[in-house]
Amino acid sequence: MEENDSALIYSNKAYDFSKLNNYPLGQAIAKETSGLYYEIVDGNYDRASSLYFDGIAICEENNLDYDSSIYHSLGVMFHTSDNYEKALEYYTISYDKAKEVDDLELQKKCLINLGTINSSLNNFLEAEKLLLKSLDINIREELNFDTYANLGNLYIRQEKFRDALPFLEKATIQHPDNYNSEENLTYLINAKIALKDTLGMQPIIKRAKASLESTTALRNNSIMTMSLSNYYRSIGDFETALSYRDDYLKMYESIKEKQRDQTVYELETKYQTEKTKEALEKKEKEEQLYITLLVIGVIIASALAFLLYNNRKKKLQLAKQKQLLEATIDEKNVLLKETHHRVKNSFQIVSSLLYLQSESVEDKEAKIAIKEAENRVRSMVLIHQKLYNKDELVGINTKDYFNDLVRDIFESHQFKSEPITYNLDIEPLVLDIETITPVGLILNELIVNTLKHAFDEVTSKSKIDIQFNKAQEHLELKVIDNGKGFEGKVKNTSFGITLMKALSKKLNASLNYMSKINEGTEAQLIIKKYNLL
Fold it and tell me: In this structure, is the dihedral angle defined by the CA atoms of residues 24, 29, 34 and 38, taken in order, positive or negative?
């Protein structure tokens, strides 16, 4: 830490020296260096963002090309906080500027990061094109190790495990320039598990465990821990698999608590606003050179003094009352947050017990029933987890919640070789817990029923569309598939149908099905009773 503090001190001295000697490029580099310190070493994202934007402002003011590097640093910060849209925006700006000045090294870095972002957004063809294009730039060959890892991960996401394997073997070569060789082991483990390829696995698992013990990078360790859990599950060692899975969940919670997305967004907006404000103030100052406001200023000052004299006591009383109210609210928020945390932990214990039970049950129908129960519990775990990790303790954003919930459902129910694709069209609304809980459970049942019954044979054209929006005075949830469809009415004998009917009554909602043979099915939930925050 002392060495890191020294780096910050020298960075500040470099800025002062550059400013004293009118060297703008040195000032911009010093601002970016200080931003990197606060982002990576101190974890202070708001301070880092402020310094990055200061550096960009210096470059714009002095027509410097170095702003391309700072835009790349901004992209990395948004990337690590999982805001892919903003990361994509800043990487693209950096790449375009790097091409203008023929900076091949920065172009290569941007192509790798743009490929990674597109892979995360499921734009697989674009991601593959960008990553392969980065390999064509013959500079900084050690960066190719990262490209190999990203290509391997890209093919894994498409379940092209055979295509992924040669790239992942290159990405995990132990080489002095391959700094991420141990981190990339997680992709290689996942590919071999999918291919049921046990050849050479013991040395790989040994390296993975050693990596966990020797590094403190929480994000990378969480991914490696989940891969080890999957490996032990694949070989039938469920006790060890569950232990690693619980470790992963603890790491996941810690990561979410450290994210600073909202602060970064506010600082970005503040920078744009202040930039416009400065231009307006400059224009106003030029106009004020020709106008004297001495008399008006005296009148205003006298009026303010009179008002302040008469209202001082009242303001002091209001300030004290405000402090008392804020302290009371803070105390209640702490208690409410702790309540959500305890509820989430209780649900998590139930989920883990159901998971362990499902692994010991041989009957297929019983296993599926337990898995469905685990998904129902998981939908409620997600709600309390999001309430615990945010400042808004009484409301849930539908877009964030449904994205996580649907991803969990599909990951736990895709048993067939050909995966069913799905599309989400979710309007971001903030609903209270009394509304979002039954809606989440109903959505879980609708998707599971579709996965189980809609497709006799899954093909590349099989898909499910999930839509949620506010239409006039009601909320509307739709789950649409292009499966085999059915005739007649839905049978009311299953537990899932009974559960959805009971939950629909709580929401004063109507659940309807529209279906035709070989033309798919549309399930529509019209919600009339809800609390929109």
Answer: positive
